[in-house]
Design goal:
The complex is a heterodimer. Chain A folds into two domains: about 80 residues, Rna Polymerase Sigma Factor, Chain: A; about 100 residues, Arc Repressor Mutant, subunit A. The termini of chain A are far apart. Chain A is mainly α. The longest helix of chain A has 27 residues. In chain A, helix 3 packs across helix 5 and helix 8 packs across helix 10. Chain B has a domain of about 70 residues. Helix content of chain B is about 75%, strand content about 0%. The radius of gyration of chain B is 25 Å and the shape is elongated. The chains are: A mainly alpha, B mainly alpha.
Amino acid sequence: MSEAQAKSPQPSADPERWLDDHGDYLFKYAVFRLRDDIVAEDAVQETFLAALKAYGNFEGRGSERTWLVGILKHKIIDHFRRVGREAPIGEEPDDGPEHREFFDRPGEWQGHWNANWAPNDWHATPAELVERGDFWKVFNDCLSPLPQRTVSAFTLREVEGLKSEEICDILSIKVNNLWVMLHRARLHLRNCLELNWFKQEQ
Amino acid sequence: MALKLYDKLKHAVRYWLLRTLPTCQQTVELISQSMERPLTFGESFKLKLHVWICVWCQWYMEHLLVIRDASRTKADQAPDLMTSPPLSNEARERIRRRLTNQN
């Protein structure tokens, strides 16, 4: 490399180098949110293709990685929009298990926790869980039986922290449906984590 | 004697409250709503009272917040610190081919 080049590296659209430098980073970012290798791989590919087209707008301002992550975020939201549009016919927006059995008790305490399903003390802090790779595996497995749109709503709310209105717009649903979906996702996930993670840990 | 009376009274109050307040099934729904919108004064009062006397719903509420907090912290973690597997070789090659075809 000549001295001039070393001093002022001319940024150029080099998708192969992008793939080497940022491919894994973008993939891990995407797969945590999309929970599916193939879908995440597609999102990464779409990101590089879009970056190639839009390279003129970047012109080396700021970090290349930040720029690519910005594009990827849009691709991830695009995926959730598709889920909203393509929800299978017949799948009501508020689909998902109601888990009535959790509150099934004979007699006067009907509607209160059935002891078989009642929560236990977790003895866990969020900080500890973040570090446990196997916890997130169980987390994904617990979400996977839920309807796609319910999982998307949950991810956009609890992982991305988007506001209700934004999520309703992305998934083409009404806010009341969103609340029902979130409630069912939480009810299901909490119980599944307790059975498959917290009880196993103790 | 006094202690026994106090215990009896405590149980009676707890029993009466649980019979009067929304059930656990209704309360967990309210807990979820409380994470989405401000509750009305009445809702919030009933929720607090129920959670005060029902450790199961108290734990339920704690757990939902642990899940939210952990999910958002995890999402903020730099992806290169995540222990999940990287791009597979096949996927990498597929993307590489697609990108070079573009040039």
